[in-house]
Design brief:
TIM Barrel; single chain; 4 domains; seven-stranded parallel sheet; alpha+beta; eight-stranded antiparallel sheet; globular; Immunoglobulin-like; binds ligand H79
């Protein structure tokens, strides 16, 4: 603590607190109406700027010859705290101009800015009474956040804070990093750390005007409990009742996919990181955060920049799924944005100048999927305005909008409402005649006004447990549309009125491309779908030597972000184990396992294998990859299917753990066996 409050003040404060004691509000019980009102500006905004800035901009990604570091550099390069603290002396961003930053965000069409008040390294960009490890202890000595929040207020941009719960600097934060030997954990008290963090959040919510979002992060360590999360959520809401808080305040986030698990967790929106969900999630607020290259903090070597086209299409993709896009900039140590970021922001801004109407205040697409691009929508006085974001311009200059039954009112190119385009009905589709060439090389928006609420039919859904079969397979075909019949083909051609009608069963005995489509009143009434079902021969059992129960494990140590090739590494130890358990580990993180043996398959058939792990894992049968569950994540289950003959088959499971929780579970499912953990009694190895 930098400036101690005189104890007399503390006593006075205590008295005041007792004096006006009232029941604390539990903001988790908020009504839907209240939440809708609070979220309204954020839902309309759709597009914001993330800024990762701190001491890590000084080394700019480089440490002792390694050049792949970012904002995590203190941990990834294992820099002792005293050495890291010295970056303060070099943090003097004389070219920092808050007005310029805000202008660049605003010109790009962004409506809010989320900046790192504090990242995991603990360094604060603001003048905090609660710590010396802040910008006031650098030669710069200017409250960066004060200048930025003032500039934001002037330009009508919402100022928001990213604040890390995990803190590698504060003596009371726990746990320590495994490699830190210079910072004993003795005497540390997490509750004291939380009190410190709350005091900082009070500064951040009281000294900088209205704050739009508090964006927490670093919540995944085992010390951060659900009770802490709920308490922190309520604490911040109490300071600014209208503030919006992300789901990383609590521990209910599911991996990098970022959505909140079931179970009454605190947090207003999900936070997919570096990924975009496959579909929209009606009724759920979420925001994808993403880097323009491969690092959040400035890395001078990272030139893997996403193209402007990619970024603009990602914005449309996210918006069409009902999410927000928080796009990152990692400023340099001199206070300027990287040139590549500036250029991309400018080009995005040029696109937004013409097309932002198709982004702001829109809601998710009414279509399941569109071959040529995306759709966003808005209510109008007489019906609905569809914004058709065309990524792939039609070669025949006819834009086909499938499965739509509304009467069209008008269509035009974005920005040219005075020049109507021809719209014709063609069976279930509306065909819009468009110019031969795309208007915009990134994303051309075509506006289609229709009467009433969208009346869209979805293609049918073809389903079966597996896409492979041995003798025959009977997939189901269903439709959520009413008053429809389904017709199908077995060669992937688009079904027509002449195609056979699907009643309740179709039996496939050979490899088949099964296509299906909905019809209404004898006319096509949806797009079609096509699924491949492959006939396979079960893999014969392998010859084994004399067997004994149990499998062989090999234990490795190392720091990986994805599964390494263990065969290239030397195991720390190997031995026998009864099943895929981690009990032979030596360290709690930065380790890996490879398990090898035989599995006894009781019957010919399609067998499914799943791993559920934190972090990544893979499962191979007879050398074939069946379950690919690689990557850094929390508990996440993935699996696959394979046709096997009765008898013994080789099984191999590999697993790695970087940090945080560690767990591995291996399941199977097959003829007569519903999904269960693979039992010890079917696992063997050679004597
Ligand atoms: O600030 C940027 C990064 O520094 C920070 N988040 C963005 C916005 C970040 N910290 N860590 N990571 C990103 C990756 C960490 C992933 C993991 Fe996990 C932590 C894997 C296992 C523990 C995430 C949380 C997935 C499961 C739990």
């Amino acid at each position: 603590m930098k400036k101690m409050y005189p104890s007399i003040l503390a006593v006075a404060l205590f008295a005041v607190l007792i004096g006006c004691h009232h029941e604390p509000v539990n903001y988790l019980n908020e009504t839907k109406e209240a939440k809708d009102a609070r979220m309204a500006w954020w839902r309309d905004a759709r597009f914001g700027m993330f800024i990762h800035w701190g001491l890590y901009a000084v080394p700019a990604g480089e440490w002792k010859g390694e050049t792949n570091h970012g904002e995590w550099i203190r941990t990834t390069a294992e820099i002792p705290i005293d050495e890291y603290d010295k970056f303060r002396e070099q943090f003097n961003p004389v070219n920092y101009d808050a007005k310029k930053w805000v202008k660049m965000a605003k010109d790009a069409g962004m409506k809010y800015i989320v900046i790192t008040s504090k990242h995991h390294d603990g360094f604060c960009l603001f003048d905090s009474r609660e710590t010396n490890f802040d910008v006031m202890s650098t030669p710069f000595k200017r409250d960066i956040l004060k200048e930025l929040s003032d500039a934001c207020r002037q330009e009508g941009i919402k100022m928001c804070w990213y604040h890390s719960i995990m803190d590698w600097h504060h003596p009371d934060y726990l746990p320590r990093r495994g490699w830190e030997t210079d910072r004993p954990a003795e005497g540390a008290d997490l509750n004291r750390y939380i009190a410190h963090m709350k005091a900082q959040l009070k500064e951040l919510t009281q000294n900088y005007g209205n704050i739009g979002v508090l964006w927490f992060d670093g919540e995944w360590e085992e010390t951060w409990t659900h009770d802490y999360g709920v308490d922190l959520y309520n604490y911040v809401r109490n300071l600014q009742p209208d503030i919006i808080i992300n789901n990383r305040v609590d521990n209910g986030r599911s991996g990098m996919a970022g959505m909140t698990r079931e179970g009454g967790y605190a947090g207003d929106f999900g936070t997919p990181e570096q990924e975009i969900p496959a579909t929209g999630m009606p009724g759920t607020d979420w925001e994808t955060c993403m880097t323009m290259n491969d690092h959040w903090g400035y890395n001078k070597y990272d030139d893997n920049w996403k193209s402007t086209k990619d970024l603009i299409q990602k914005l449309a993709d996210i918006t069409s799924k009902g999410g927000n896009f928080l796009l990152n900039v990692g400023p340099k140590a001199d206070g300027t944005f990287p040139e590549e970021s500036i250029n991309r922001l400018k080009e995005i801004g040029e696109w937004m100048d013409k097309n932002s109407e198709a982004i702001y205040e829109t809601s998710a697409s009414p279509f399941a999927k569109l071959d040529w691009g995306r759709c966003t929508q808005k209510q109008t006085d007489t019906g609905t305005r569809l914004y058709l974001h065309v990524f792939d311009w039609p070669a025949d200059a006819v834009l086909k909008v499938p499965g739509i039954f509304n009467e069209p009112e008008s269509a035009y190119l974005m920005g040219e409402p005075g020049k109507p385009l021809l719209v014709q009905r063609n069976e279930d589709a509306l065909w819009i005649t468009v110019p031969a060439a795309a208007l915009d090389s990134f994303n051309s928006v075509v506006v289609l006004n229709i009467k009433g609420q969208p009346d869209i039919s979805f293609p049918p859904v073809i389903q079966s447990d597996y896409r492979i079969f041995i003798d025959f397979i009977e997939p189901s075909i269903t439709s959520s549309n009413s008053n429809f019949e389904i017709r199908f083909t077995t060669d992937c051609r688009m079904p027509s009125v002449e195609s056979p009608v699907f009643t309740n069963k179709v039996t496939l005995t050979e490899t088949t491309r099964l296509a299906a489509r909905c019809f209404r009143n004898g006319k096509p009434a949806s797009d079609s779908v096509c699924t491949l079902f492959t006939k396979v021969k079960p893999i014969p059992a392998v010859q084994t030597g004399e067997l004994r129960p149990g499998i062989i494990y090999s234990y490795y140590e190392g720091d990986w972000d994805s599964l390494p090739d263990f065969s290239m590494l030397t195991a720390v130890k190997t031995g026998m184990t009864s099943n895929f358990n981690l009990s032979e580990k030596i360290k709690g993180d930065h380790y890996g396992f490879s398990f090898e043996g035989f599995i006894q398959i009781p019957e010919d058939g399609i067998w499914e294998f799943m791993t559920d792990s934190d972090d990544g894992s893979r499962l191979y049968i007879d050398g074939q990859l069946v379950a690919d569950n690689d990557g850094l994540h929390g508990m996440e289950q993935k699996g696959g299917a394979i046709a096997l003959s009765k008898g013994f088959h080789k099984i191999k499971v590999i697993f790695f753990e970087k940090g945080g929780q560690d767990e591995l579970k291996v399941y199977w499912k097959g003829p007569g066996i519903s999904e269960e953990l693979i039992a010890e009694k079917v696992l063997y190895s050679n004597k």
